[in-house]
Structure of YVTN family beta-propeller protein:
Amino acid sequence: MHPLHPQATSSRLLSLALIMLGPSLGIAQQTQPQPSTALINRNAIAYSPSTAKIYVVDPIHSAVSIVAPTKAAKSLPVGSGPEAIAVNNRTGFVYVANSGSRSVSVIDGKTDAVIATIPTAARPYAIALDELANKIYVSNTFSNMLTVIDGNTNTATNLKTGSADDIVVDPDKNQIYLLGYESTTVTAVNTKTNAITKIPAGAFHLWGIAKLGQTLYVTHVQDASVAAIDTDTSAVANIATGSMPCALAVNDRTGELYVANYAGDSVTLIDKNGAATATIPAGHHPQAIAIDADKNLVYVANTQENKVTIIDGRARQVLKTVKAGEHPYALALNLSTHTVYVANLGEIPFTALPAR
């Protein structure tokens, strides 16, 4: 069985999976810190512009940590094994995928109270939403089902789409794109008709996904590249990166794409023309990226080094490396204060990095 999909009683820690995959990918083994037993999800932390609050999953305590601008952080109990969070900025509601309890918790962003618990299929993992349509999409890794939640009624339906580990929503085209870690294709779902299309992505092991304009970017872990997929024609162009690209982030202002190379300990910069124009050093095993477009700063979480690398996007060089918590693995930016919050796999669920 693929190391990213062990039995339901086991964890699916990405860093552990990468160590296990090392020999088959021709990567030298390295001595690593003892990994956490929690799950890794890039959507483990989210910012709400309407309330300026940060929400962070706390799977160890089956809770969500809530960080308000002028108040001390507080912990809100949710379902078992919370993994991912999405915020509807139009309604202010916050949605939490609870892997262990097969549910989504709905939090009122004004009162910070759980107002509904919605059942899903087995092992909800990724979550994304269409704010205008008020639809919430939840992938269920061990059931091949996509749960679609109506945010107006908090009712859910399940659609069989195949296994999915990440979701990107394109509301303009009424499409969602599902990425599966074990797949060679991206699944496109028409949100009006539920019609499903498989888009060849050009390689096995797809771990990172992002969209800019009509182009969908997907990382190829095994061959050190990113596939640029034209969503109109399904044409694919491969862009070389560093070793084991695993995470992506887009600067909407500049049209640039940043790729975290897990085994390469680096970040690849891809310009708006689709060319890899720079390789910037990062810390050990970078695994998440967030961008402050206003300041053109790039934040990279180095999971096995317990640090965050800060990159000047204009100069294309490292400004500073700062300490985070234990095994940092996801990032969110407060757009008002420019404070960066880091989700950690350790006992302390988050770290706040002061604005630069």
